[in-house]
Amino acid sequence: MLAAKQVCENRNLAFQDVFSRQYCLSKRSLPQIEGWESPKPLLGWRLTHCAKLCRCDLLDKCGEHIGWFLGSAVDQNGNFLGKSEVNLTAALSDPDFWSIAEKEISDLAGRYLVFVITDKGQRAYFDPVTDLPAVFNRMEQTVASSPLMALSSPIRANHRINHNQVLKKGGNYGVQQTCDPDVLRVLSNHYLDLETFSLHRHWPSDHESFEAPEDSLDAIAQKMVARLGQVTSALLNNRTCMIALSGGMDSRTLVYSAKEDLHLAKLTYSHRATWISQYDCYIGQLVATELGLAKNFQIFDALKQIKEGIYDNADLRRLRWEFCYRTGYQNAPKNAVLVVADILPDTDYVLRGNILDMARANQWPRGFKFDLNHGISKLVLGGRTAEENLAYWGPEYLNWMDTLPKSAQPRIYDLAFVEQLLPNTLGGRLIGYGNANYINPFNDRYLIHSCMQIDPAKRKSGLLNSALHRACSATDLPMTRSAMSDDKTKAEVEKLFA
């Protein structure tokens, strides 16, 4: 993490602000940072993390300290993890300790990371889509939240995906690549062996079925909404949360799944960062009123803040570069998006409906057949043309496919979304917003698996989303797309931002 510290010192930036909510685990000595916490080392492993990132001791059934839990999670019974000690139901002395512990960790929803450090093995487990980001540096025996946090010296150019090309022309890092060739991003659904620094798949298992169950679509949707609401409610009851409201399907499903507990939110809000998002603001206001949250609803207008000079060019330049440093030189979003995150009130989490777009088969082509070119294109890899990406990364994509159980192969695009894309675009990028800590209640293997079991054609036609809305009794308020073509709504939106 010395590279992160050095960047801040060279540019006169406050490390605590730039690398807020980040962490580093290493066998090397780590710098002491004001406002950061460093528990007593465990079997030679040293952990340091921002105090805003919650840490709990991980204990086995007998109360033996066997690691650390970072972040927030909800178990299958709706119990919240992340406030006090996290207890596994297996004892370290049990012969099947690893299989029991792995199942318990895999069944958690939320944004979390679990370090299991014992004399019987040392592993790191990650949340379903690696929403709490993780990269590793085998050379330095380090696991960290972002590339600069995993390095003790300045970055070296990675010629596989050059960070300067990503910064200038956009696109994602992917296929585990980061801005430095020694730092690799973990793959979701794999644990990292801390003794060999190798990744091993733990989900889905060989016996996992991806065929649609016999239940009706409505019955499946009801179970999904019940679990989504359970996770969302647990977060609202145990963390200080804000909820982003919009005119999209995913946001609608999220909030209506837990409508009984929405009053616990610190704030519900919408933001205007693009022309389209002004419609989200208008509809978000309608949703808040419908749910009895109008008094606790606010619109954050980033476009107005920039237009009126509240954020000048120097401020915007600072926000862009801080985003780049936090994420390991990811291409920064538009200025207004950065401003929105910067002006949000301080809170533990902002609840979002990401990952729910699986419910409409967002990664699938209309033909629903496997095509390598389509698979590579959905990763939106930076640094090369589309044709070059296919030739260069195609073999590695196929190698990754071969690691999947045969039963999972028919859902290849869904798993690529979870394992290849989201660790870069959710975990890898959302950490770039210093004042906004996002969490996705749909980040749960039960929900992801249930979604994948539904035929992609049914999802793409809107059948699953319709069933989800029926299951959570979402009212028939307009969606953004339909609102944009309605003259009356256009007039109301103009009035809202007059």
Tell me about this structure:
Helix 7 packs across helix 18 (487-496). The protein has helices at 2-10, 15-18, 97-106, 163-169, 217-238, 249-257, 277-290, 302-307, 313-327, 335-343, 372-377, 386-402, 412-430, 445-453, 456-460, 463-471, 480-484, 487-496, and strands spanning 23-26, 36-37, 46-50, 55-59, 65-74, 80-81, 86-87, 109-118, 121-126, 135-137, 142-144, 183-185, 190-193, 198-201, 241-244, 267-272, 297-301, 349-351, 438-439. The chain is α+β, with helices and mostly antiparallel strands. The radius of gyration is 22 Å and the shape is globular. The mean pLDDT is 96. 37% of the residues lie in helices and 17% in strands. The termini are far apart.
Task: List the topology elements.
Blueprint: H1 2-10, H2 15-18, E1 23-26, E2 36-37, E3 46-50, E4 55-59, E5 65-74, E6 80-81, E7 86-87, H3 97-106, E8 109-118, E9 121-126, E10 135-137, E11 142-144, H4 163-169, E12 183-185, E13 190-193, E14 198-201, H5 217-238, E15 241-244, H6 249-257, E16 267-272, H7 277-290, E17 297-301, H8 302-307, H9 313-327, H10 335-343, E18 349-351, H11 372-377, H12 386-402, H13 412-430, E19 438-439, H14 445-453, H15 456-460, H16 463-471, H17 480-484, H18 487-496
Parallel strand pairs: 4-7, 15-16, 15-18, 16-17, 18-19
Antiparallel strand pairs: 1-3, 1-11, 2-3, 4-5, 5-6, 5-8, 8-9, 9-13, 10-11, 10-12, 13-14
Helix pairs in contact: 5-6, 5-14, 5-16, 6-16, 7-18, 9-10
